[in-house]
């Protein structure tokens, strides 16, 4: 058992095969149990359960944060600093179409963090972030 409490998130997708290709092929997530209607992924140590339910997908609303439009409904993972940078480089090299390009927020300040946003094939928004000092994840 890991030294953290993994979360579980179920979310809607358009179809299983595009979802499998993205989460396994692009993000490197291992596949758990699956059927033709749902699939579980090891999402950086957490359990994602993608369920085919296209009618539950909608255009995400956004709020302005630091002058950028951040999707209100999103999920993701907080990664170690170097792992985040490696993922960002791999996604850029693979031609990912970012909602918000990989970048650093609060540089040199408390809570310095790297962040990026992009969509999965069903239009679900994902944010990946990392903290220069992991102890500052909830810093004010």
TrEMBL record:
InterPro entries listed in its UniProt record: Glyas_Bleomycin-R_OHBP_Dase, Glyas_Fos-R_dOase_dom, VOC_core
Gene3D superfamilies per record: 2,3-Dihydroxybiphenyl 1,2-Dioxygenase, domain 1
Pfam families tied to this protein: Glyoxalase
Transmembrane feature ranges: none
SUPFAM superfamilies: Glyoxalase/Bleomycin resistance protein/Dihydroxybiphenyl dioxygenase
Residue ranges annotated for the VOC domain, each copy included: 5-131
Protein name: VOC family protein
Source organism (scientific name): Echinicola arenosa
């Amino acid at each position: 058992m890991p030294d953290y409490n993994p979360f579980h998130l179920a979310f809607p997708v358009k179809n299983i095969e595009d979802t499998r290709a993205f989460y396994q092929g692009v993000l490197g997530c291992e596949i758990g149990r699956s059927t033709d209607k749902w699939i579980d992924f090891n999402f950086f140590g957490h359990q994602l359960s993608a369920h085919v339910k296209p009618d539950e997908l909608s255009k995400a609303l956004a709020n302005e944060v630091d002058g950028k439009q951040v999707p209100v409904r999103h999920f993701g993972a907080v990664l170690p600093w170097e792992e985040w940078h490696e993922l960002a480089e791999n996604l850029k090299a693979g031609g990912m179409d970012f909602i918000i390009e990989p970048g650093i927020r609060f540089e040199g300040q408390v809570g310095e963090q790297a962040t990026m946003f992009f969509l999965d094939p069903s239009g679900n928004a994902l944010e990946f972030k990392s903290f220069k000092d992991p102890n500052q994840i909830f810093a004010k």
